[in-house]
Design a protein that fits this description.
Helix content is about 95%, strand content about 0%. By secondary structure, it is an all-alpha fold.
């Protein structure tokens, strides 16, 4: 039972690390890239639909 608890803690740590990296990316200007990417998709759809 102790081994299972340790595995769960490891999985939770991995998820927290992923979220931390993602939020750090957004805080340091990553949100600009996300906005540009979304605008690019919208422009591409509007050009292709004409």
């Amino acid at each position: 039972m102790e081994e299972k608890k340790e595995e769960k803690k490891g999985e939770e740590k991995g998820k927290k690390k992923w979220y931390n990296y993602f939020f750090n990316f957004l805080m340091y200007g990553g949100w600009l890239l996300v906005v540009v990417f979304i605008l690019g998709i919208i422009i591409l759809i509007s050009v292709l639909s004409k």
